[in-house]
Write a structure and sequence with these properties.
It is built from 31 helices and nine strands. The protein has 798 residues and is mainly α. Helix 4 packs parallel to helix 7 and helix 29 packs across helix 31. Keywords: Isopeptide bond, Ligase, Ubl conjugation.
Length: 798
């Protein structure tokens, strides 16, 4: 079709619509065919004026219609000529679309895409210019018609509708075939221009635009004619490829290949798809490439964990997480949790049967905790490197660690061995003389930094405890001993540990620990003041004296039932301090904890050689041991049983009577002396028939000997007493929780009260049996009452 590339300069008369239309059509043809040509200001203004004149004409040469001034007052002329111009514009553009369709038939494949994009770009420019030129028609006739409900649209929308209906729908199948053919070549590794697809896809979005509908409606055309066919073609392509990959290779090969494929598709989709359609497109590919193979992936997960193949584990996780981070990943999380649990149980089993583990509780605790940490750290690293710190896998790791940490070959079910071992391990880290446990950390790090790192690891295990109250009780006892016996490796380490425990357990527990440190500071000041007062009163202490005054509520130390009879010299000093303390704090009472007191005594033996012959041996002993040894002092003078120049010979009954101790306590100390060969027994045993004397032949290469170490029997009894204390505290905690619940709820069924109590107590797992016992106790104490109507319902008694 021929058209004039120029527009006549002279504007037609305003009253002749036919000549005006010829003028407008010539300009419109030029705009449609060459929108890039510069119309110039005069031509643009003339075309705009021509549209205005056409719409406001009083006479039309079409059909010989004339309008009078009376008609004009009712805007009939504007209505008639606006409609005429709109229809003529529609017909002219439709004619141009037919021309474009004819020209498109000469193109196929990528050439058709290029032709489509070129024409689309040109047409878009034409639509903008035409819309502006016809703005008077848009503002008046079109707007009025739309307000009255007529099915018309503005000029720009009209032009896009004509492109869609008159051109695109004619070439739709061929065009989409060309798009999918190009995509297939790219997927097959051939070179093609993806931008051709992007331009076509962008045009579909514009073709759906209609200023009368919302955004969701505007995307319907794009979704219908492009996105859904694209998804259908892509899923079919990858269905075939997935079957081929599984036939040709292993599941791992499939995972590697599909990971790369989906990465390529993601990158391409970002280039040509609208952002609102990315998820639907990716989900469709995920379904065909991942979801259908989920069982294969889960079966391959355990072998990957066995091999610690982080790269492929990460690929597998990344693939599965594309289908969702919740339920779709749950099968993998279950496999992961079971695997970690079994690995932990095996690690504990391997160390539990060793000679080293059975040698002492210190070794047992160290091997146990290091085995736990080894497994946890190994999988925590995997969690970071392969699972991107996924919260679901992190929870699975924690749950698995909680399972094998609390119940394993070293910690039987129903017991509280795990928290005891953890508390002892922490004690070993913080106690002097445990360098073999405190391992080296990062190169160049200080001892304190290494200690802090190990304390952090130990505290990280704390959150796996099911009986945190047991740990707290035992840790408090260990801390008390370290402070009383001045065995802490550093005050900084103790402060760091308390700070870390505060973060995981709260202030209720750590506040008592902090008060213990305060008592140590105050006690040191008091001891110094006592020494100064003694000098002021002309009383010289006969030996070095260090007294620690501890508040009962803060310290987990028990008072001794038996009353120790102190040696006279020691007793006089203690009496002096008691008088000083009561004068300083009127109304307070001191309870002497002799079982926790320690002393150093110098002893001479006739056959000692070397420095010991001159300086003697220094024994570190308990107060009980001190009282017994002082009875064998040669300066004690003659008496019944004092028949040896090296000291007296005493029976057990004499020692019990003189010291005031229980016979079992005396027997335990005498066993220590005989084992260390400090004493001799007349019959080689320690019983009521034995007679004891200092071993004049005693020799040792060490000048200092520690005889005050805790005995296994004492440790066992102390552990039993501690657990009894824990159970007592638990029962009180359960009772308090029940009272709080019932005070709020007033009336509850038995089942609901049990559930609420279990959920409220976080420090330990309250058993149903213990809750029932606590309910019975509270009924006896008249805090609760069973309902008269239903015995399974409880009422709170105010």
């Amino acid at each position: 079709m021929a058209y004039s590339s120029s527009i006549q300069n002279e504007l037609p008369p305003s009253g002749d619509t036919e000549k005006i239309w010829v003028y407008i059509k010539a300009g419109l043809d030029r705009i449609l065919h060459n929108p890039g040509d510069n119309l110039g200001n005069n031509a643009y203004i003339n075309l705009y004026t021509a549209v205005y004149n056409y719409c406001t004409s009083l006479k039309s040469s079409l059909g010989g219609a004339y309008y009078t001034a009376s008609d004009a007052t009712h805007n009939l002329q504007g209505t008639a000529f606006g409609k005429q111009l709109y229809e003529r514009l529609n017909a002219n553009i439709a004619e141009y679309m037919g021309e474009v369709v004819s020209r498109s038939q000469a193109h196929t494949g990528d050439d058709l895409l290029s032709f489509y994009n070129q024409e689309w770009t040109k047409y878009g420019d034409s639509a903008k210019i035409t819309h502006n030129i016809f703005s008077y028609l848009n503002r008046h006739w079109i707007q009025r018609e739309r307000e009255e409900g007529a099915n018309v649209c503005d000029v720009s929308t009209l032009m896009y509708q004509l492109w869609r209906d008159q051109f695109f729908m004619q070439v739709r199948n061929t065009l989409l075939d060309s798009v999918f053919s190009l995509m297939t070549r790219i997927r097959n590794g051939q070179v093609a221009d993806i931008n051709l697809v992007k331009s076509v896809a962008d045009s579909f979005i514009s073709l759906g635009n209609d200023d009368t509908v919302g955004i969701s409606k505007k995307m319907e055309f794009y979704d219908k004619v492009f996105l859904q066919p694209l998804i259908q073609a892509s899923t079919e392509y990858y269905r075939i490829e997935s079957e081929r990959l599984l036939q040709e290779g292993t599941t791992i090969d499939y995972i590697v290949r599909v990971s790369a494929r989906l990465k390529e598709e993601d990158d391409r989709a970002e280039l040509f798809l609208h952002e609102s359609s990315l998820k639907e497109f990716k989900d469709a590919l995920n379904k065909v490439l991942i979801s259908r193979q989920k069982e294969r992936f889960c079966a391959e997960f355990s072998p990957l964990l066995d091999a610690r193949d982080k790269d492929n584990i990460k690929r597998l996780y990344s693939l599965m997480s594309r289908t969702g981070t919740g339920a779709p990943l749950e099968p993998l999380r279950l496999v992961f949790s079971d695997y970690v649990k079994n690995a932990g149980l095996e690690a504990v089993r391997q160390v539990s049967g060793t000679d080293e583990a059975s040698g002492s509780i210190t070794n047992e605790a160290r091997l146990f905790v290091t085995a736990i940490l080894s497994v946890h750290d190994q999988f925590a690293e995997l969690l970071h490197d392969a699972f991107d710190e996924d919260t679901g896998f992190s929870k699975s790791l924690d749950n698995a660690c909680k399972e094998f940490f609390n119940v394993n070959q070293m910690c039987p079910e129903g017991g509280a061995r795990a928290p005891q071992l953890l508390a002892h391990y922490c004690d070993t880290l913080l106690k002097k003389g445990s360098a073999n446990v405190r391992v080296m950390g990062a190169e160049g790090a200080s001892d304190e930094d290494n200690l802090e790192a190990q304390l952090s690891q130990a505290v990280s295990v704390y959150r796996f405890l099911k009986a945190a109250d047991v740990f707290q009780k035992f840790y408090s006892q260990h801390l008390a001993r370290r402070l009383v016996y001045d065995q802490s490796v550093s005050s900084h380490g103790e402060e760091v540990m308390i700070s870390k425990l505060k973060d995981v357990s709260g202030v209720d527990f750590t506040s008592k620990l902090q008060r213990m440190f305060l008592d140590m500071t105050v006690g040191k000041e008091m001891s110094e003041e006592f020494k100064e007062r003694s000098l002021e009163n002309n009383y010289k202490l006969p030996f070095d004296f260090d007294m620690k005054v501890l508040h009962t509520v803060s310290w987990p130390l028990k008072s001794q039932d038996s009353k120790l009879v102190l040696p006279p010299l020691m007793g006089s000093v203690c009496d002096q301090f008691t008088t000083y303390y009561q004068n300083k704090h009127n109304g307070r009472k001191l309870n002497w904890l002799w079982q926790y007191s320690r002393a150093e005594i110098k002893m001479f033996f006739p056959k000692a050689t070397g420095p010991a012959a001159k300086s003697g041996y220094i024994f570190s002993v308990t107060t009980f041991q001190l009282a017994i040894l002082m009875m064998f002092n040669a300066e004690s003078g003659p008496g019944t049983g004092y028949d040896a120049i090296t000291g007296p010979t005493l029976t057990m009954s004499q020692i019990v009577q003189e010291t005031g101790l229980e016979e079992s306590a005396v027997k335990g100390e005498l066993e220590v002396f005989c084992k260390a060969q400090v004493m001799k027994s007349s019959n080689g045993k320690v019983n009521g028939d034995s007679k004891f004397v200092l071993n004049a032949d005693f020799k040792s290469k060490r000048m200092r000997l520690n005889l005050s170490a805790a005995k296994k029997s004492e440790q066992k009894k102390e552990a039993e007493d501690t657990m009894n204390s824990v159970m007592t505290d638990r029962m009180l905690t359960i009772q308090a929780a029940i009272v709080r619940i019932m005070k709020t709820r007033k009336t509850l069924s038995h089942r609901q009260l049990v559930e609420d109590t279990i959920s409220q107590i976080k420090l330990f797992q309250a058993s149903v049996g213990d809750i029932k016992k606590a309910i019975d106790v509270l009924i006896d104490k008249e805090y609760l009452k069973r309902s008269d109507e239903n015995h399974n319902v409880y009422n709170y008694l105010a």
